[in-house]
Amino acid sequence: MITLLSPRLKAYLLTGVLVATSTGYAAAQSGGEMPPPAVGVVELAARAVPVMSELPGRIAATRVAEVRARVSGILQERVFAQGSLVKEGDVLYRIDPRLFRVRVASAEASLQKAKAVQQNARQQLERQKTLRERNVATGIDYDTAAVNLAQADADVALAEAMLEEAQINLEYTEVRAPITGIIGAALVTEGALVTADGTSNLALIQQVDPVYADFTQSAQDLMNLKRAVEQGKLASPAPGQARVELVFDNGTVYGDSGRLLFASASVEPTTGQVTLRAEFPNPKGDLLPGMYVRVRVEQAIREAAVTVPQRAVLRTEAGQAQVYVVDAEGTAELRNITLGAVTGSDWVVESGLNDGDSVIVDGVQKVQPGGKVAAEPWTPTASPGDQNSRQDQATE
């Protein structure tokens, strides 16, 4: 029985034959295998990595001085601008000086009188000395003249001291800044009576360049670091070489690094914390006393640490960190690793990787466990292709 085909059906059958033929031909040409994907790899090299701790802290002024009156009197004038920078020795207040000028004049007159008496006593002693040499005067008169001169000398010394005291008190009518720093609000006004023995201060000056950063750390953590150094697991940084940084609330790092000054010799009994202090330059006045910061301090050095770029790390649904390692035959192996602290753009690897391993950084999304790859050296300088790979990896 012969079946006749319609022209449309004949066209469909012919098209299918052509497609099948071309597909088979392409497969034959390629040998039936896809080329291995190109990936960027980095060869791990052990290096010294600082052990950084990020701890809470607050900014404190390096010097704080209370401005006080050293003589009693009525305030005539406030010279400084509140909240401004004052230098050591600048005049801040002026106290009515008239009474103190009178006392200086009185002390000067007393000194002149004492000097006149001294001069007369010296002349009397010289006269008695000449008379005694001639055997005209007795020894008693000579001794009396010597005693009178000694008393006159003492009176002059006392008058000079009284004059110096009066002059100092006159200088104290100008209340000067004891240190260089930022002065706060004026706590007294013109016309107020201030006393030398009063407990209230006239203003407060804080030196804010440099500043202190006081921060705390658990005593247990500090002891663990010391034990690790003693056991040789970590190395201690050289004295004065420990790197200290300030981190603000928004995550930005303060431009100038500081230096670690000391750690407290005692532990706070209620919190179990140890207080540490670092010093930071503050030329622009960006750091203000009382400001909350986080202090990033280098407390040890991990020798021969293995690090891996953060972008090379994958995560399972359970949060397990994994990387692809390429062996000598170009086969990719998916390996579980344990991560430690972050250093820059890298993770410190606690376990799972060794010095010399080749880890895939770019093109991870194209790799299958146990599959072949075409490895190429990877550098941190991102090219357009690297950026696309990074975006694809982030999407995964």
Give an overview of the whole structure.
With 396 residues, the protein is an alpha+beta fold. It folds into four domains: 38-49 and 306-395, conserved putative lor/sdh protein from methanococcus maripaludis s2 fold; 51-62 and 209-302, Elongation Factor Tu (Ef-tu), domain 3; 69-96 and 174-200, Beta Barrel (OB fold (Dihydrolipoamide Acetyltransferase, E2P)), CATH 2.40.50.100; 97-172, Helix Hairpins. The chain has five helices and 21 strands. Strands 2, 4, 7, 9, 10, 11, 12 and 13 form an eight-stranded antiparallel β-sheet that branches. Strand 16 (321-326) and strand 17 form a beta hairpin.
Quick rundown:
This protein is of the alpha+beta class and 396 residues long. It has helices at 7-30, 98-133, 139-171, 219-230, 384-395; strands at residues 38-43, 47-67, 73-78, 85-86, 91-95, 174-176, 181-183, 193-194, 203-218, 244-247, 259-263, 273-280, 292-305, 307-309, 314-315, 321-326, 332-336, 338-343, 346-351, 358-362, 374-377.
Q: So what's the CATH class of the largest domain?
A: Mainly Beta
Mean pLDDT: 82
| Residue windows where pLDDT falls under 50 for at least 5 positions | 1-6, 8-30, 382-396
Task: Please provide the ordered H/E string of secondary-structure elements.
Answer: HEEEEEHHEEEEHEEEEEEEEEEEEH
CATH superfamily membership of the largest domain, which one? Efflux pump adaptor protein, beta barrel domain
Principal-axes shape call: elongated
Largest sheet: 8 strands, antiparallel
- Say how many strands there are: 21
Radius of gyration: 44 Å
Please give the share of residues in helix.
25-40%
By DSSP (H or I, 4+ residues per run), the number of helices equals 5
**Under CATH, the topology of the largest domain is which?**
Elongation Factor Tu (Ef-tu), domain 3
